[in-house]
Amino acid sequence: MGRVTDFFVVGAPKSGTTSLYFYLKQHPQIFLPSKKELHYFSFPELKQRESGPGDKYVLRSCIETVEEYLEHYKGSDGLQCGDISPSYLFHSGSALRIKEFNPSAKIIILLRNHAEKAFSQYSHLRGVGREALGFKEALLAEDERDKAGYSDFWLYKKSTLYAPCVENYLDIFGAESVRVYLFDDLVNDRKKVLTEVCGFLGVDSSFHFLSEDAHNVSGKPRSYFVAKYILAPNLFTSFLRRIIPSSVGAPIRSFIKGFNTGGKEKMCPVVRDELYDLFAEDRLELESILKRKLPW
């Protein structure tokens, strides 16, 4: 089958996976594909959920075959190879496929305050012109969207139930092969997290990582036209992705998105409190699994 991926950062979305990608990509003993998210091991589930605005175009950028997957790891001999795809956490079948692909794979999970993660997911879709509803309205629309087959990224509440997902990876890989970090850890003590991650992966933990700017920041778009037709996944942007190498297209898209991102929308305190109550049980279950009091 060729090169086996050594470690997987499986999620959660909007919880620091992009920042971790850019940090680990600096390490001379680690190989990460130039395309950050491959979503190969969650593809069977992803292709069943493509009814939301732009979903089918997002799916086109995902990896469907093992041959295509391994192509992204050319030139990686002798290095620790990683796959950072946030969809692997929610789609439980991914864990079994990863285990079959590499039984000794190491798993890294990043988690964020439930309400903040859900709102950040929403803000991301707003920022690229895909989400037209207010946050409260979008939460109320979630059940219908779920039934209609929208991708998991639209399921702000359902995709933020962490405990069953974390338990699934622990059951399949064992506690010794899984590490769980919080978004707060990465923000407040980046050096400690990166040192621990390097130790876990068996690479030089004394390596000095350069500071990175914030990545994948979401906010209200200055122009919904630019967001919807230039940034959102659609027929035009899908065509551009096919003809422009990601090494060229990604920085351009990042620049346009940064220029078009206005002030951050704020979550309504009432909605925040409602989400705090909604996720209370999951939070307690997660604390029991991690044997750690969460700062949320």
TrEMBL record:
Q: Is the Transferase keyword given for this protein? A: yes
**UniProt keywords, alphabetically:** Transferase
Has the keyword Transferase been applied to this entry?
Answer: yes
User: What superkingdom does the record give?
Assistant: Bacteria
Pfam families assigned: Sulfotransfer_3
Instruction: Enumerate the InterPro entries for this protein.
Output: NST/OST (IPR037359)
Q: Under which name does UniProt file this protein?
A: Sulfotransferase
